Amino acid sequence: MAQSDHSQAMGTALVYHEAMTEARLLWEDPECEIESPERLTTALECLQQRGLEQRCLRLTAQEASEAELGLVHSPEYVALMRRTQALGMGELQELSGQYDAIYFHPSTFRCARLAAGAGLQLVDAVLTGAVHNGLALVRPPGHHSQRAAANGFCVFNNVAIAAKHAQQKHGLHRILIVDWDVHHGQGIQYIFEDDPGVLYFSWHRYEHGRFWPYLRESNADAVGQGQGRGFTVNLPWNQVGMGNADYVAAFLHVLLPVAFEFDPELVLVAAGFDSAIGDPEGGYHLESLSQSVCMMVQALLGDPAPPLSGPMVPHHSALESIQSVRAAQAPHWTSLQQQGPAPIPTPSTHSPEGGPFSLLPGGSELKTAAAQAATALSSLLDQLRLRPTPPVRTAVALTSLGAGLVLPADVLHEEGSAPQEETQAWARLHKALAKDEALTTLGKVLYLLDGILDGQMSSGIAATPAPAAAATLDVAIRRGLSQGDQRVLCVAVGQLDRPSDLADDGRNLWLNIRGKEAAALSTFHVSVPLPETTGGFLNCVLALVLPLAYGFQPDLVLLALGPAHGLQDPQAALLAALLRVPAGGGVLALVDVESTPRLAEVLARVLHGEAPPSLGPFSVASPEDTQALMYLRGQLEPHWKMLQVAAPASVL
Prior knowledge:
alpha/beta, single chain
């Protein structure tokens, strides 16, 4: 998958070729039999059944040339792989035995060239502006493959070849590779470990070195070599069973701070899916894999992701791993230095007794894991069926900002209003809502809000007159809370005070940005000054706003940009885009009617699923902003566990 910032790009590409299903195992090998053609065909069928393939720009993969393979692999290795086309089964089996967890077939060379070529096509499509992002659906996979060695089902290193191609053909200087896989992608790491132009991030099961590929360099203290020091970021999981809270914590406290500081021109994702729910085998459980592929394509297309389930409390072991990687990387990244020095992890991270784990579990262990995984996957799919995607992704009530708005064609320009009696009843709560303009706006806001709460639309945006901004927000909060067990997160930016009579009962979380001072007035009432720099703003969002939002698990997010909110358009857009996720897309944005049409337009676009514009060059947070953030985190961390960046000290 590739992603870049091209405002004129046309949607999402899907790159595939049916010939990649031709290679298959020709002999008995329990370890290798799971890497089958059905991994592709099942995923493609799921995309077709969901109508997702039809929404993408379909590209037929073309074979990478041997020169393109040579961007990463040695000529001798490429020649050896070419010769597999003419080998018999016995010779293929003998050659396969010379590598770790690999098998060859007479079609392997062509399949592997198509897999690498698909990545090259996708990079070209993104970087020339033909598409905004996309998925290359390929096999064999690539991230374990090294310069002169196949490894772990991988023949050519598809993502590494794509990155080298982007550097040499397109002249890119900053490429981010994110490797989500239960196994460490050592091949990518080896290829770029001394290259400061490629930032490689991998989270993977490590088990203190007892999990395949059993490498010391998969640990957190492997940070790169020479000029590439700090551009290899390994987050090793040392226990199994990591959940949503652990992965979100890794995103917020490691990956995203470093990624924003790095400011990549291109993002490549090596998507293994073997840590997905329902998969005990390592990315080869067909239903889990196909469902994961579909959800990723939905995200690329801009569809809102379903809200995360389960308690948002990271495991102690996960926090130890996060603490370790932050300590190892802090000397290289200013964004990881903003919350004070990271303490050295406790000795509990030392390797326990026991031998190494095999690449895959076997026997009764696998059967038990498979049964548990199937139950978990079935439960998740049932939850998703109970929360269908709303028919309208984004609706806007912005007529007061003029007719010059340029929005995606399928954004609904909402002219509806709540019933007059209902609107008037709510308006009686505030004198500021008695005027005609305020009353009309309130009717539109209530109409959008009801559409979101009823599941008819995912998100909305409305313009509110400045004198009635606080009153309109108050009504929106109360209307949101009036539906049963709804939990409402309100992020108020600018001159907007929390209603004094709003119950502090845990059902609403009020977060004011641009408050007069940093203050945790209660567990659910937080105020923070608006940071002055890009780095300060990112720290505020990633280390405070989002951990609170994910920990709160809201049903609805109200984002209010009131008078004198002070946000630049890219900052407001990023905030809105990131707040879509905790509530499963349920965001209602209220903007001051005096705002520029450009602000309203960019907010509507990101709520519709488009990428926000760049914040520009990274600048360090001021000491005052850093101090305010650290104070608030210290006050709030005992209740909001997603704020933690280190494991609590053990008490003996």
